[in-house]
User: What shape does this take?
Amino acid sequence: MSFAQLRQNRQAKQASSFAQRTPLDKDSSVHQGSIQPTEAVSKKWAGSPELYKDLPEFVEIRSSESGRGLYVRSEGVKSIKAGSTILLLPPLVNVLSTRCLPSHCSYCHVEGPPSALKHCGKCKVVCYDSPVCQRNDWGKHKQECHAITRWMASGSGGPSGNKADNTSVPTEAIRVLGRLLWEMERSGPGSSWSQEIAHMQSHRSSLPPQSPAHGTLASLAHSLAKYLDITQDPSAFNRWGIQSARDLVDLLSKFTTNSFTLTDPVLTPIGVCISPSAALINHSCAPNAVVVFPQPKSSRPNPLMVIALRDIEPGQEILSSYIDITLPGPRRRHELKENYMFDCNCSACSNSEPDPRESLRCPKCTSLVPLPLVEAVTEGRTDLPGSPVICARCNSTLVNTADECQDAIKICRDALDSATNAQFSDITRALRYTTNSIALLRPIPLHIACDPLLALTRLHQTLLISKIFSGPPPSSLGEQHSRDAEVDEACGIAARNVAGVSAILPYGHPVRGVALAELGKLLCVDVDPSTETSPSSASASASASRLISGTRIVGENAAVPRGYARVELAIQVLLRARDELQIGFGRETGDGGGGQAGRDVRGMLQELEREVETWRKVNVVERGR
Ligand SMILES: C[S@@+](CC[C@H](N)C(=O)[O-])C[C@H]1O[C@@H](n2cnc3c(N)ncnc32)[C@H](O)[C@@H]1O
Assistant: This one.
């Protein structure tokens, strides 16, 4: 019996699970943001013991120059261990992004094949995976249902059209604001929920009237008024305590400052959520905690969880990141300033060591060499446009001219934006952008975690997986071989992604765990049964460390083993994934840690171990004949 035969049954199942995996939806991200809060704001909440009752005993709210923040109490508590749950909050207000409405249950957020989900009979927009979910959500969906129906009837599409055509559905920002206001109305202006919303940070007073951010809020305000059907009589806003345009902009600014991106168990953005208690957490680019939604369960509301990424001592502040921390420092700070209006002085931003996110890596001595600056030449730097980029340690020339490197990076950043925009509408075009950009960067010895190479690698992996597994399974040996080559390519790309994120994110960060799980899953896909190799732990471990080491640079192609050695490699990668997921998604989730992703990895490991066992037995018998 061949190993490949043993695993054939699994193949179809894997293919369908990859096909359901959606690529990152950049535009659906909603960030948290910030303004400098005043002492008066802090005092207001301090006098209200009724607020933030869902915070656990071991944390407290304190004020600093970052405004209010969440801290581990200084006395009477032990340190919070990495992987522990800090907050578990069933969010009162959340919505799915428009793209996910047909594929996820709007109540519990479990993903299902669209055919298994049932549309709301009235608006025909939101879906549920069971009558229980539909019933439980009705209290929140009732007013929304009318508003969506009215909105769509007034638009071009209309509710009777194609259910899959979601172009005329109100955006997630509008829908979540609607739910927020109706929830405030239901619970009453004096309720702790309404008070917590009232105390959230707003940027309004710091926004210059002509700024793009102000324009965005103004257009959001118009859309919201249309959605709530109060365009004729703005005083209808009064029932939410909104007396003026100023109050409305204030509310919208609170929303953009404090809302969270709702993600699925592998961190794909699927919507928006509002949780005033979790929004008390301040930002760091070197966070000690993460906000995740690790384990949607059918028929239950999907809770928001804050998990400790490393041990947090009594008295220390709990800090999460508002933005993608794989971006280089200048881009992170720009984003934080633009959207959240503060200058980040965290430990990562103050670090003067060369950062892999913005470095070349000398192929000779492996030193990090800062990328030449794209715009001006700063004092003390030798990256004049026509001058070579030289390794200060071993004097090797890394790039012949600084502008050659700068041009390639600029072109590839633009291509990354184009690929991101095209990823859902035209996957072939998106793949062309990522393939060409990665090829363009190949002659430059960028660190594997350098921007935009890492982001291109991640997107390329997602696109390749969609392409490979969205079609029918191979029906001839020729088709099988070309799919095998694509799977090998995807493994190589996934390995680079693991190496990249591992070089810049701390052990246990959920992005690392998910990257490892994706690589392990790809390695589990059966390829060419005729090239099975014999068991060899030593060679598998060498392959594993070559494949997932943080030192590789683009252009090096690690061999992806076939047959048995590949399975051994998959097991090693999945074991690492399991351990890191247990931290990033919490030790207490997913019946053994790691949330849904951890559970899936453990399932794959069990299956692989069973197959290896059977393979060993069969081969011992065959050798004995
Ligand atoms: C989502 S809120 C966090 C809670 C907030 N401090 C409060 O008082 O409600 C974002 C706010 O926190 C502050 N903030 C968060 N991270 C910060 C940081 N690293 N440096 C300075 N201010 C920060 C900003 O002033 C911003 O208004």
